[in-house]
Amino acid sequence: MANIKSAKKRILVNETKAARNKSIKSKVKTCVKKVETAVANKDAAVAADALKTAIREINKAGSKGVYHKNTCARKISRLTKAVNEIA
Fold first, then answer.
1. What is the three-state SS of the chain?
2. Global pTM?
3. Residue 2 phi, psi (nearest 5)
4. What angle do CA 22, 12, 28 make, to 5 degrees?
5. So what's the pLDDT on residue 6?
6. Which terminal CB of the chain, N or C, has fewer other CB atoms within 10 Å?
7. What is the predicted pLDDT for the residue at 2?
8. CA dihedral 50, 51, 56, 58 (to 10 degrees)
């Protein structure tokens, strides 16, 4: 365990940020999974709806610094491509 006050604070801050990032990543993964499930079932309407939600969550995660902007672009591109192929 750290002895210096600033190091103790840094540990607490890192735990808080890690919990926040984990929560956001989990939400993104859930949204992505919904899109992929709809694509697998070839349900274009549900997939398009889920895609809109997923894009919103991915962009939020990118703006909060959880994901790099290119990672966000890649995820959105792959999901959009998958949805467009079934439409």
1. CCCCHHHHHHHHHHHHHHHHHHHHHHHHHHHHHHHHHHHHCCCHHHHHHHHHHHHHHHHHHHHCCCCCHHHHHHHHHHHHHHHHHHC
2. 0.88
3. -70, 150
4. 10
5. 96
6. N
7. 86
8. 110
Three-state secondary structure of 14-33: HHHHHHHHHHHHHHHHHHHH
Record the tokens describing residue 50, joined without a space. 């889920």
pLDDT level of residue 1 (50, 70, 90 thresholds)? confident
Instruction: Give the Cα separation of 3 and 56 in Å (integer).
Output: 42
- Helix axis angle, 5-40 relative to 69-86, nearest 10°? 10
Average pLDDT over residues 6-35: 97
